[in-house]
């Protein structure tokens, strides 16, 4: 699996599969300079999986840690627009943290923007 395959899966809403693809891409060199980058992507994907399953506490926890891991790589890293992803995660965090238990927020699922111009 590769970084690009993980992005494709994430953008399709397949968060568990994206998480697994990024784990496989990262596993051969867990101590590389991209360690936090992959950890951030994996945590963000896990957060969206928790959100989709109705687990607010899990989503908040994973989004917070994922965004923190990604911040050192902003605004772009390895062709990914991380700045816009972190903005989306922070907005989702704010919405979920302020929602009442009976009012589960209907969040727009994120896309990771890619491209050579990034």
Polypeptide structure, described:
With 118 residues, this protein is mainly α. The protein has a single domain (3-98), classed as TTHA0068-like (Hyaluronidase domain-like, Orthogonal Bundle), CATH 1.10.3450.10. 60% of the residues lie in helices and 3% in strands. Strands 1-2 form a two-stranded antiparallel sheet. A hairpin with a 2-residue loop joins strand 1 (76-77) and strand 2. The model has no long low-confidence stretch (mean pLDDT 91).
Proportion of residues in helical segments: 55-70%
CATH topology: the name is: Hyaluronidase domain-like
Mean pLDDT: 91
Class per helix and strand makeup: mainly alpha
Spatial strand sequence of the major β-sheet = 1-2
The best one-word shape is: globular
CATH C-level category: Mainly Alpha
Give the beta-strand count: 2
Distance between the termini: 22 Å
Order of helices and strands: HHHHEEH
Low-confidence stretches: none
CATH architectural name: Orthogonal Bundle
The CATH superfamily turns out to be TTHA0068-like
Largest sheet: 2 strands, antiparallel
Strand % is under 5%
Number of helices: 5
**Overall tally of domains:** 1
- The Cα radius of gyration reads 14 Å
């Amino acid at each position: 699996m590769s970084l690009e395959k993980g992005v494709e899966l994430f953008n399709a809403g397949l968060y568990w599969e994206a998480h697994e693809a990024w784990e496989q891409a990262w596993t051969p060199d867990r101590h590389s300079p991209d360690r936090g980058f992959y950890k951030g992507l994996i945590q963000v994907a896990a957060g969206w999986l928790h959100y989709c399953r109705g687990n607010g506490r899990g989503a908040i926890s994973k989004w917070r840690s994922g965004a923190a891991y990604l911040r050192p790589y902003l605004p772009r890293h390895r062709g990914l627009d991380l700045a816009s992803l972190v903005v989306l995660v922070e907005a989702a965090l704010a919405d979920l943290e302020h929602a009442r238990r009976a009012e589960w927020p209907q969040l727009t699922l994120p896309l990771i923007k890619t491209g050579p111009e990034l």
